[in-house]
Amino acid sequence: MPYHDLGGRTEVQVWDVNGPEYIKVDWRDGERFRASISLNLSKFNTLERMLFNVALPMDFATECRDFFNERLTPNGKDEWNRKTTTGEVVRSWGYYVALALNPSVAVEESWRTTPLPGDLFPPLAMGKHGLTKNRFKKMRELQGQMFSKDEDGLDENDPWRYCRAPVRAFNDRRRRLIVPSWLLDLDESMCAWTGAVGVEAGKGANFKPIPWSSYVERKPEPLGAEIKVAADGEVGVFLHLELQEGAEAHVLQPYYDEYGHTSAVSLRLLEPWFRGPRRAMDPWFKGPSQPSRACYGDSWFMGLNAAEAIFLTSGKAIFPFGDVKTNTSRMPMDELKKAVGPDSGDWATFTTELHLGDDTRAPLMAVGHRRGPEVHTFISMHGKTTRGVPQKHKDDDTDLDTGYVIARKCPAVLNDATVAQPKIDRGNRRRQYDLAMEKRFRTEAFPFRLFTTVLGIELTDCYYLDQYFNKTALKFREACHRMAWAMMHNNIDEIAEGKCAADELYREPEELVDGASPYSVSPSKGGASCVGHIAVPMYCIPGYDGGKQQNCVVCVANGIKGTMKTTYACLQCSTKDYVVPLHPPYWSFGKPSGWKCQAAHRRAPEMHRGTRPNVKKEKKKGRAGVDDDEEGAGEDDDEEGEECEECEEEGEDDGEEDADEDDGEEDADEDDDEEGADEDDGEEAAGEDDELQSWDGFGNGHGDDYDEEEGEDANEPEPTPVARRTRRNRPDERQSDTAAEAQRASRRTRHSP
Fold first, then answer.
1. What pLDDT, on the 0 to 100 scale, is given for residue 491?
2. What is residue 30's predicted lDDT score, i.e. its pLDDT?
3. Does residue 226 come out as left (phi exceeding 0), alpha (psi in the -120 to 50 range) or beta?
4. Of 479, 496, 513, which one is at a domain's C-terminal end?
């Protein structure tokens, strides 16, 4: 097959027809080594450490802080104007992820704390994670302006100048930290955009439009910015991104004049792993001793011209292989397809030699593989054509998916293609559809849209890196929940100020209760929402209509005096008639409260008894409906009535709510407001009021301090303000016999079961 080489000389590409299993020795004699990270193992042995130390470009977060502060008021103190920090920038990134995981709630409604009629789930109350609604709006606005305010360092004639920062930071981070395995992968990705197009030259131009919009018909999101990607074929982590900037820009880029656009893109993506002089910026780079790798590319990247360019320019360190569909120059396509056998899985092997620019030659194979009625064609400079592991595919002989998987025979070299080919597409699906951050945040600023795309890639990379190196088995959404929490509760500023250790990268969720996860699950994405002993406003408790404030049970248990009132209660332990008040760790507007009561209650919820705030209201309603002729009092009621009369004869206050009662088992003071609840449990009850209560087991009531020898009043507590007020207002002792008799009848009625 005649052709002109790169020097313009007329050449003839000669192909040899061989048996299917002709190549039995891999032409690339290097090892199939694993990927590695240029850090100590302790820096990435958990998902969160992998996130902060490897996946996220932390230097870029610091750059963003500086860019944002140029646009904020120097002495601003409110949420719209105060200066930001690196930790707050990363916290806002966590908010983007957390809100993307909960698409069922509008972004504007995510800070709501009050439930509305018809709500199936509690409000998200996103303010509790550290950013108020106004502050998040401001951070989101600034995230689209990732450049200096005076545009120093930008080429005013570069239409992509406002968008390059996140891509540049991503590439620098990957190149510095990740050493890829023996197998590389080339493919495309899309950043969807349907907004304005075109950025003018000069300073102060409108930064919001996309400079150049691509349309790739075969992609699920066909319109937007096309991104060419180099990834690790084993791990799936993206290693290098390149924006497709349009035909006018491509002709000015490296390798274009010599190889043309297609091969030039491949060379720029793979350049970090070429053999060449050592680079001080990359300690992992071995220069002339750089190990050889294989690189898979789909039909857009691969052809004989591209394979020759990649192999020669890389210093013969990268052995390309991949599909051939459109780049058929110098390929015997018809002859190769005719040579393939009739059965599904049959293959044919042709071989040739490439005449390289340094006057050396390199072997190359062409393989035709039958898949049903179609024959797929490949080229490769590495691998073997002996029989490999059968491919598992649906039935080739039917147009419908029957659900059955059939093992199709194939050559060993295609096993390598099967490993590498889906990695980038898999990452794209995770980012675009499972996380869907771009769809969650509607924007008119393309730089912000591109940032969310890159952030989604970083999270997806972290997930696959954690699986590869730490052997974890987390689901993708669970991993995203954990990463969002770590970013929202990061300790980056505290570490910089020396307030915590360098390895305490984030504040972990409070201790789990009964194995429950502290990470909430989106209602729209499946899974139940976990509410294990969380402090919520009391009005969030269904049916609750008691007082707005109650005493915190943990403060009461620990004997803390002073500020004990709270408007929050445990969501899991509380009902409309029985609440367990707790101080919350965060107020609704997102600032820490300083209280640890919720954590203490989670550790030992059985130690904290609640209160019945509606008892007093029910008692008043019961008094209003007293019927002196009510039947069923029985013999026990008469005994209780006699005891009440004894109390009155001993000078007890008729307005008091306590009555001494002997049930034949043990002596205790029992509050009528409790209505016998403590008696059923066999415990001693203490005098209790709606506003101020005594608690058993903490030395504040009778409880274990009861002394039979000294009598019932040996450990009687000091009268509460409510009790003193009751005694001041007690009726005159010289009341008439008729009034006294009426009160005794009322007492007997209340004692009846």
1. 93
2. 87
3. beta
4. 496
